[in-house]
């Protein structure tokens, strides 16, 4: 028998400790590459009543977090050495709205950036005497710690068109810094569009802004609103991906995406291609509604890209969504498709975020369910078919169970030696069939293997790409029963 992993060791593996060793297990040479982006998990929600979240990982080892507060009256900051730590980190108000004039109302969507050795916060604000005169503004801090440092108002970002404008974000591509934001142009029509311009300083644009997205599709105009807003940029493999939010800020709210080559002229609308539909949207099965206004950060080990967003845990809202305070900050891992594009999957259920399990000897194949049968397969679509939440075993705390991400309450279980994803019926038989002992990988101790709880000596393994629970005797058997968390 192989030694069982402790709960701490299992969680350490999930957190991405690919180099972990296990007492009494000979690591031996690995025959498949340990994933470059090992598993990482968080527990949602990160922050209640915090919308439009922005989490920035700095070189000082801290994550900095800011978001819109329901009172729309101030800008707050938290910091922690881990993303999860932001949940309990103390929150400091670093700036408060003006009593009169500009920046006197609707303090929305702050973002914190570090540019050329200084801190900057971009935010939108209305005027005290005209709360819907929303415009973008910038604060600057030269201190090492932006929470204790002094913030200076750099003023409004001057845009050629003096109209409703918000959600400014900044990013650099090939040494050039850009600003992107949402704005209404009465000559174009109602609602807000996405614009981009070059920057000559962290608070100044230069040249003529270019509209790169206009909400025209039904998924961008649902709920009676014509909305493209909240641009956010992530770059990978020579591509620039700009997500944005669309439709009314209720359960219709969703994310779309624009894609451009990093070598293209980003100031040309023709360089950007829009997704045919939303890339992230409400999901009734996981009770997540209106996900959007996202940003991006990275995991603690720097190996995983993390989606930061807000949503609500219920669909129906009484009154205006803007008056509902319960948008909350959430995070989950981003996966990357074989074609180099991001796959955001679905907004996962509250609680522990799921993992994926890749095959040791078929590294491009993941455990997934298909018509409830468990198998391994490459290029899984939808992504959530290959995501499982590792929870305390239904048969007891010394075991683990793997719960489907897109079918909450459904678990991997064996039946007649085959592995299925089925709904927990509450019986002791199901609990036993759906519980496993997590052990160091039988073919590579950096991986993980799952021994059946009620059929000791039998492990989850793939055979002809289908998952079975079988006794193992050969090196091939052990390879088939070894997986990596991703």
From TrEMBL:
Site (Important for catalytic activity, responsible for pKa modulation of the active site Glu and correct orientation of both the proton donor and substrate): 167
Active-site annotation: 52 (proton acceptor), 229 (proton donor)
Presence of keyword Hydrolase: yes
Residues making up the signal peptide according to the UniProt record: 1-32
BP terms from Gene Ontology: L-arabinose metabolic process
Pfam families recorded: AbfB, Glyco_hydro_43
UniProt KW Acyltransferase keyword: no
GO molecular-function terms, A-Z: alpha-L-arabinofuranosidase activity
Residue ranges annotated for the Alpha-L-arabinofuranosidase B arabinose-binding domain, each copy included: 356-484
Swiss-Prot/TrEMBL keywords: Glycosidase, Hydrolase, Signal
Enzyme Commission number(s): 3.2.1.55
EC primary class: hydrolase
Family: Belongs to the glycosyl hydrolase 43 family.
Name of the protein in its database record: Extracellular exo-alpha-(1->5)-L-arabinofuranosidase
Annotated source species: Streptomyces chartreusis NRRL 3882
